[in-house]
Each structure stands twice: as structure tokens, then as C-alpha cells.
Amino acid sequence: MLEYKNGKSAVHSLDVRLKLALLAAFMLAQIFAPLSLAPAFMAATLGLYLLARVDFVEVVRSRKALLLLPLIPSLIRVFFETGWTDFLGIAVPLGIHNGALNFLFLCSLLYTPLLFALTTAPSQISAALRFYRMPKRWAFIFSVAFVSVNYIKRKAERTLAAQRARGCKSNALALMLPVLHSCFLRAKTMSLSMAARGFDADAE
Amino acid sequence: MAKKAGLRKCPAHGNEVLRLENVSFTYPGRKEKAVDGISLSFREGEIAGIIGPVGSGKTTLLYCCNSLAPKEIRGKMEGRVLLRGKDIAKMKFPEISRECSMVFQDPNDQIFNLTVEEEVAFGLLNRGVPREQALDAAQRAVARVGLSERLHDDPSDLSSGQKQKVAIACALAADSKIILLDEPVSSLDWRSCQEVYAILVALAKEGRTIILTEQDTGLLAEYACRIIVIGKGRLVAQGGRDLLLDKRIEALGLRVPSIARLARELGIKGGFDEIKEKLARLAGKRKGRRHA
Q1: Is A36 inside a domain boundary?
Q2: Nearest-angstrom CA–CA distance, A27 and B99
Q3: Does the predicted interface ipTM exceed a cut of 0.95?
Q4: How many domains does chain A have?
Q5: Closest CB from A147, A193, A203 relative to B104
Q6: pTM (2 decimals)?
Q7: A22 shares its domain with A48
Q8: A198 contacts chain B (CB < 8 A)
Q9: Measured between CB atoms, does A29 come within 8 Å of chain B?
Q10: Cβ contact B68–A192 (<8 Å)
Q11: DSSP sequence for B135-190
């Protein structure tokens, strides 16, 4: 889901500290700007995807479940807000108007950090977080979490294949348990390996 | 080349680098000890192979050697481990890792960086070595294990053998004098096994101490200077490779090297070198007869 994709675009090669600062500024601007500006922010997000040469449609398609996050609160607005408003000279129901803006606002808020994760190597993220004085322990947790996404994805694929080979139908719980188990085991061995290589989370 | 390297003799008078004094370790909630009163000493430049059946305490013994047990793996430890005469219990990991590196059984579990270079430099960066220097050392270590062309690749794209070499490169970059390896070739093909052991032999020649656990007695017969046999957490025996011909090896459920089995079938007796010599002579005679 947050798998880093190597590339040579302007977004990829931007200094990661600057990229992180711009991301924070962009997100804060979205949060504090009026909702009516949501389409402009979404257009900017799409522009960034173009600039990064990352296929936005593919990103959305391969992470369909993520769409539920902006969709559910937007649908709530659609169904629970009453009244009418003027949109480009046409009277539209307020729920639909606000729901659509809310959807664009949340999509932009969700897919911009995702683009950051897709275009930044986890080790660079860790270094940038450390630059902004994040404690080493937390910076490292973030970077390992980003790297581990790939591992979890592969593990889930293998577990699913093994289950299907033995005639098991798709079942989220049956998939999740072995994947979680293997993740905990990996975390344990990884922590041993880090300790053996002198990693000290509290050392500066 | 690898085969030739394996025939080297053990250094007789290397300095002692690691000493285990009556070491025992018990996992929480278990009555029986995983390691039970083991005393051992390791010298510079030797390759010591620890063998024993599954669950005999080989890996736990390795964990005791660099104090992962009990510092990271909970349990009760008795006895002392001395690293160059210093009690390891009083040392911190960054200090221990300078002297002693570990390669885990499954390299997938210890590799978590995005490039081979960063993975190998990780230990040095933890020590506070400047990034440029750490990356330089990583490049040299990766070159030693013959993976220079994969320096900037994602380690998860490498084969099992290459991943194991990356794990060894991590130990090399750290310039550790002692390298602990937990069944380093258990998931590798024969060729990769030979390559990994050739690297280990070269490292031992530089004076590094290699301590490894292994199931393949044939590999130990070829490469190890000293065999340490463990059963139910206890030290059963230790000695040269002739120990692998001992009946106790089979009694523990381990497979004796194929050369020893062949010698037994042919009724050839003696130590390893003697058996090899006799078998070579026998093969020579047969060849001669066929030519005649």
C-alpha cells in the first residue's frame, strides 16, 4: 500500500526534508482553507501525481479499500444535510454539494501523503524526520513500517496462494491471522538482529 | 578453490577471544535448561562448528555468545561469557557488536533496508561512523562477498545465497573479529554453500573467529577446524573432524558425512585424512585396472 516506487521524476529527486516540509504545509493549507477550495487542492494533487509520473488511476485501483475513508463521511453529508445551494448558477441539493466537496477534500488529504510515501525511500524519510528533531526511536519505527509494507504484501500473497492451493475460499480472518503471526515473528527476529548490530533507539 | 581452502589446518596458538564458563540458559516457563553448563573457549582464526540435533540448544548457545540471551531474549542465564577477557554481561550492544557480529539463519529476517549498501552500512551508522565512511566500508564489504554489481539493488530481489552473503557482508563491514552464524547455508544450494564457506575460510585466514551451527556434517568435515557436539543443551564432545566418525554422532540422530559412510561400507578404518587417502588410492587402482 505504501510501497516505495523508485523513479527519476522531479518529485522523486526533491530533497526529502523540503518535500516533508512542503507536504506538511500543503496539508495544513487544505485543513484551514475553506471547503470550496477543495477542487483546487485536488487538482494540485493530481498535478503532483503527473509530475511524479505515478499513475493516479492505478494507485486508486490497487488500493480500492482506501476510498472508503473519504466516501463514508461524504455520504453521511449527502444523506443528512438538507437544503439547497447555488452552484454555477444552478440550484443543487446542499448535501450533494457539500458531500462532493468533502469527498475531494478528503481524497486530496489522503492521496498527497500517499504520493510522498510512494516517491520517498524509507531510509530518507527516517533521515528527514530526524532532521526535524523527531526522536530516533520514532523516526526508525516510521522507516521500518514503510519498508515492511512490501514484506506484509508478499506474505499475504503467499499465504493466500497456499490457502487456495488447499481449497480454502477467500476469508479475511484466515488470511490475517497467519500474516499477523509471521509479522510478529519477523519483528522479533528483526529486533534481535538490530540489537546484535548495535542499534540503540535511545542513543543520539 | 573452495575445496582447497577447506583443507587448511587450525591455528594452534591463536589468542583466546571468547570464553564461556559454565553457561546455562533457561527460557521462561520451562523447567529444562536450553543450554546446560557449557564451558568453551574460542581462539583467533578458527572455524568452530557446533552440531547437534534440532532443539539441542545450538542457536541459544550462539545467542549466549553475544549476550542476545538474556539481554534481548528473556530467560535465566547462569555462568559467564568473557569477550577478550571482559564479562559480556557488563558490556552494551554497541560495544559487543564491534567485536562480535551475528548472521541469522534466515537472512530475510535481518534484512530490512532498501538497498544492499544501506543494509551493510546499518551497523556502522549505529556506531556513529560518518555516513560517507560507512558507505565506503559497505562497498568494500560487498565487494569482498562478490556482490558489487548489486550494491544499489533491493536486497529482497536477491537470491537466498546472495542474501546470506549480504548478511555476511554486514559482519565484514562492522570489522568484527568474531562472526557467529546460525546455520548459514541451511537454505542454499550446493554451489552457494561452497561460496559462503569459501568466504568464511578466507575470513578465518585473516584471524577472525568463525563460530557456526550446522546440520551438514559433510560441510563441517571439510571446513571446520573444531567440531563441538551438543545434545540436550549439554556439551557431548569436542575435537577435530575425526569426531564426526564417532558413534555418538549417529546416536544423537545426526547423519555422519557421506565419505565416512562409504568408508564404513568398504571396511576402511582410520581418521578422516587416512580414509580420504585410502579411498583415493582405491579409486586410482580401479582407474588403472579399467585402463589396463
Answers
A1: yes
A2: 47
A3: no
A4: 2
A5: A193
A6: 0.75
A7: yes
A8: yes
A9: no
A10: yes
A11: HHHHHHHHHHTT-GGGTTS-GGGS-HHHHHHHHHHHHHHTT-SEEEEESTTTT--H
Q: Which of A120, A153, A187 is the last residue of a domain?
A: A120
B101 beta partners: B179
Which domains are present in chain B?
A: 2-244 (3.40.50.300), 257-292 (no CATH)
Sheet holding B35-43, edge to edge: B35-43, B16-26, B76-83, B86-87
- C-alpha neighbours within 13 Å on the C-beta side of residue B13: 0
- Per the structure, the complete domain to which residue A14 belongs is given by 10-120
Q: Which of A140, A197, A199 to mutate to test the interface with B (most CBs of B within 10 A)?
A: A197
Q: Between residues 72 and 111 of chain B, which touch chain A (CB distance below 8 Å)?
A: 72-73, 92-98, 101-102, 104, 106, 108-110
Minimal Cβ distance to A195: which of B93, B106, B122: B93
SS3 A114: helix
Q: For residue A34, give every residue at least 6 positions away whose Cβ sits within 8 Å of its Cβ, in sequence order, or none.
A: none
What is the C-alpha separation between B257 and B277, in angstroms, rounded? Answer: 16
Residue A43 shares a structural domain with residue A110: yes
Same domain, A88 and A157: no
- State the residue for C-alpha cell 541469522: B104
Q: How many CB atoms lie within 10 A of CB B153?
A: 16
Question: CA-to-CA distance for B126 and B268, rounded, in angstroms?
Answer: 54
Render pLDDT for B95-153 as a digit per residue (tens, 0 to 9).
Answer: 888 899 999 888 887 888 878 998 899 888 888 888 899 999 999 999 988 899 999 88
